[in-house]
TrEMBL record:
GO terms for molecular function: ATP binding; metal ion binding; tetrahydrofolylpolyglutamate synthase activity. It comes from Ophiocordyceps australis. This is tetrahydrofolate synthase. Keywords: ATP-binding, Ligase, Magnesium, Metal-binding, Nucleotide-binding, One-carbon metabolism. GO terms for cellular component: cytosol; mitochondrion. One of its GO terms (biological process) is one-carbon metabolic process. It comes from the Eukaryota.
Amino acid sequence: METWLKRAGYTTEDLARMRHIHVAGSRGKGSVCTLATSMLVRHRASSGGSSSKESKVGTYTSPHLISPRERIAINGKPVSQAVFAEAFFELWDRFTKAAINEGMSASDAETATSKPYFFRFLTIMAWHVFLKHGISDVVMEVGIGGEYDSTNVLPPEAVSVSVITPIMYDHITMLGGSRAEIAWHKAGIFKPGVRAFTCVDSESKQVTKAIQDVLISRAKEKGTDLTMVPSQKGLNTKDNTGAIKPDIRKFKHSFNGALQVLAIMAVREHLGLKSDTMTVSEALQEMPPAVIQGFEEAQIRGVFEVIEEKDIIWLLDAAHSTGSVRIMGPWIQEILKSPDEQVILVFSQQVRETKAILTSLVRSMKDFLKRKNVLNTIILARNDVEGQAKNVEREDALKTFLGKTSGKLHEGCIIEARKNMADAIMSARKAAAAMKNGNTKPKVLITGGHRCVGAALRVLEPESLS
């Protein structure tokens, strides 16, 4: 990665001109990045003015929902098409020139063979944009793992704090088949002399201890002061104790309390509001008003998102693991207005352990609503926006799987398979029209991952972000 940086005209010393909150983990990285960004933007605006360099906050996250521009944001907003295109071609030309200087022919140097692969290119491009716009505060999300991730070229001087969110089974072909192995990779972002915060939470005490042991060992190896944040279901209200409570539904459910604490502790450390002698609870109570305001204003697309149309309500969440889909149950429980109301499910997940994720999702519905017939229709789709896939064998296999287990998971549910998201949305609209009852708008839950939700948003909001 340092070689590619050099070809782009940068060194790690250039990266140290910015201070990064570096975020790894399996679940909730995006939530932590969004919260941290919102808090920093508000804080910088209150102390430096919207036009000052100090007020600008850069954010680099992945994957995107609709457009790659979402990955590179300034003050919480995706960069414009003009900024994105200009940065892309500036780097393209730099890589081309570097390849020619290294002996490659001009014709070959002009092609993609002289360029880094997609994620590495965009990572360098994010730093290029941030440096060009005079940004000093950056919230940066790891792509995969940590130890060997492109973002981990950051030197210790460039990192103000490291964060590791709860670790689940994640990219197991690359990171290993156990959570302890995965934890080793995530902890690769630890830096000497840089404080780190993490939360370890598992249904198994044995697994929790195994992860903790790895993280503690890696922290010692890297010379990192590691703080374990206890798992919390949510934060207390901003009452007579002074603690914070976000009045935002999307942050209320399982694990998210710990994610909120991780984000707040990271921002405190980044701003120099040291908490060495404070408990986590005490640290949370002593937050500047602007930071609290930013916390409460944070918005995440594709996370407990509700889009209301005239005759239908779309519920979108990018949950993509057996653990993360379990929170669908309590969310849907809050959404439904009557004890017999049903939901249409559009599900797409083409990479991970789909059967286990889908089973966990449907069981969560049944367990929290105390009935099997929550789902009126299940539509299994590929996450292609349009076009005809060569086959839907995976979706048909899931349909068969659900059919065989329907007695355990749901009753009287219609199961369909569709070749793309546009067809799935059309089927959901037809199912919603058929089940409409009185003034209650039918609800459609779309989940299965970022690609699923992104494809759905491109169908529902084709003009939203090109």
